[in-house]
Fold this sequence. Notes:
- By secondary structure, chain A is an alpha+beta fold.
- Chain A is built from nine helices and seven strands, in the order E-E-H-E-E-H-E-E-E-H-H-H-H-H-H-H.
- Chain B has a single domain (12-118), classed as Fumarate reductase/succinate dehydrogenase, transmembrane subunit (3 helical TM bundles of succinate and fumarate reductases, Up-down Bundle), CATH 1.20.1300.10.
- The complex binds iron/sulfur cluster (2 copies) and FE2/S2 (inorganic) cluster.
- Residues 51-54, 56-61, 71, 73 of chain A line the site of FE2/S2 (inorganic) cluster.
Amino acid sequence: MLQVSIYRYNPETDSEPYMQDVQVDTGGKDLMVLDVLELMKTQDATVAFRRSCREGVCGSDGVNMNGKNGLACITPLSATVRNNKLVLRPLPGLPVVRDLVVDMSMFYAQYEKVQPYLQNDTPAPAIERLQSPEERAKLDGLYECILCACCSTGCPSFWWNPERFIGPAGLLQAYRFLADSRDTATRERLARLDDPFSVFRCHGIQNCVNVCPKGLNPTRAIGHIRNMLLTRGT
Amino acid sequence: MVTSVTNLGRSGLFDWVVQRVSALVLLAYFAYIGCVLLGGVDYTGWRELYAQTWMRVFSLGALLSLVLHAWVGIWSVLTDYLTERMMGTTGTVLRLLAQLLCGIVIFVYTVWGIQILWGY
Ligand code: SF4
Ligand code: SF4
Ligand code: FES
């Protein structure tokens, strides 16, 4: 029997959040944390969490497992459980809607700020804008982000200033478009990042790198943005 | 774009560069002082060292670097923890008071430092 301690909060009935202890029979198998959540839901249908693809693609089941953010669907118990205990909490730093479900508005607002779409005001060619294989290779390690928010909600700078610091996920995407050879808005993009908060609240703690389920490196992207600001001197 | 009135420059990049450059000056200064101390000094040797203009300029440079470094650092700590988001208006009031206090302390130390360097 696995000892699970899960964060419960239903704003309609609870005056404050509490931790609920539950025993889950895993049948001795090395299940994924998401499987454990599903088993818990068969015992108690009121447990709320998000999930969709159950294979690490959609990014909807980011949760905090034994103190570390990650996707429940691709985290095996063997990777997180110590002494037969599993503590499940919502992603830190965001308002809780219910149980493990958080309100991602602040996270998305920061994503929106970096204008995460290609901007090019030159006339469109007949078929498509081409890139050389080298230019395309620059986007590797950037485009794979699934916006699960594990990184930003693990970043202390984002906890303290979620309205002003763009956070690792947003900044990774900011760099994804700065690095794109087809994008012509580089100057404007950089000018919007030059203030003391948007980029420069990153102190290189690398919690983001440590938790990213896709193995991406937002800190490196942030370093590239800083170098671009430095060399272009906007 | 996020604006702010109490950070050092108008841009985050400026503050960032100031923070790195001042750190290098401080490192050089204290490494040098460390070497001098390891070589062993007496009162006259120490006086002679600080009687030289270049040493006073170097020390003033280090002092000013410390001042800038401290302001940028304290400013970012205060805007992390004493904020409107965490405590409402109290946060802003406390932060401005803390900034004022730091400003006064930093200013006094600068004047005092210059007095020490050139006053004797
Ligand atoms: S490296 Fe920067 S973005 Fe990543 S967790 Fe640390 S402060 Fe946040
Ligand atoms: S960078 Fe990684 S952790 Fe952050 S949102 Fe993207 S996939 Fe998730
Ligand atoms: S359910 Fe889609 S990433 Fe886990």
